[in-house]
Amino acid sequence: MAGIRTISPIGKWAFDAGRTARPGIISEFVEVADMPLAALSAGLRLGGGNAAFFRLLGRRPADVLGESFPELVTTGPDHLRDRLNRVAEGWEQRFRGSVTGLGSGGAERLTIVAGRMRAPGTAILLTVLPEAGPAAARAEQLSSVNDIEAKILQGIASGLSSLEMADKYYLSRQGIDYHVARLQRKFKARNRVELVSRAFATGLLDSTAWPPRVPESRRAS
Question: Would the keyword DNA-binding turn up in this protein's UniProt record (predicted)?
């Protein structure tokens, strides 16, 4: 029987990011990234997803878009719906859970990470990952960036160009491009969109704020 168990929910009272995402940037990296990503709209309905997500689901987009996401994940969706609603309403910053019953492989256990983002038409950004073993999980938690890398990562996630970041951070455009390329190598990302996606998936970028922030705990001293 499909089911869900909580890994590490993070609670917070009445969270409100107070800012809205630049239109298009969220849907852009959802569509281009190679890891399964989806956007849930009002009512936790599946508003969009990338090719990797629909491959995992084993369904055509036309068959599931607009459907309630909890109904796609488990035969007992009440708990999942409650947790995702808490994220959507701002009572929890992020929900990380382990689920079964998603996709053609039904019995496979997967990790989902749900974060609230204030963007037009998007309530929750959802990342779906294979359940990592202890060693992989430890490696993920050790991921960190230095201060300038954190600023550049935040800038990319906000939709800033190299020229805009160069002006904002008092670096040359070549300097910005150097750090971007270094980050892409570090996270094995083929492009900036994929870099941001991986940063969200590992928790390096906090998806509950806009623009997204790299927590101080993930910045190398």
Answer: yes
Q: Could you give the domains of the chain?
A: 4-131 (3.30.450.20), 136-218 (1.10.10.10)
pLDDT in tens, 12-33: 322 222 333 343 445 555 665 5
Q: Which two tokens stand for residue 41?
A: 């709209």
Check if the beta carbon of residue 100 is closer than 8 Å to that of residue 112: no
Q: What is the DSSP letter of 216?
A: G
d(CA 200, CA 127): 8
Provide the strand spans (E) within 51-119: 92-99, 110-119
**Count of CB atoms situated within 10 Å of the CB of 31:** 15
Find out whether 39 and 47 touch, Cβ atoms under 8 Å: yes
For the question of whether the overall pTM of this predicted structure is more than 0.85, the answer is: no
DSSP state of 67: S
Token couple for 134: 């202890």
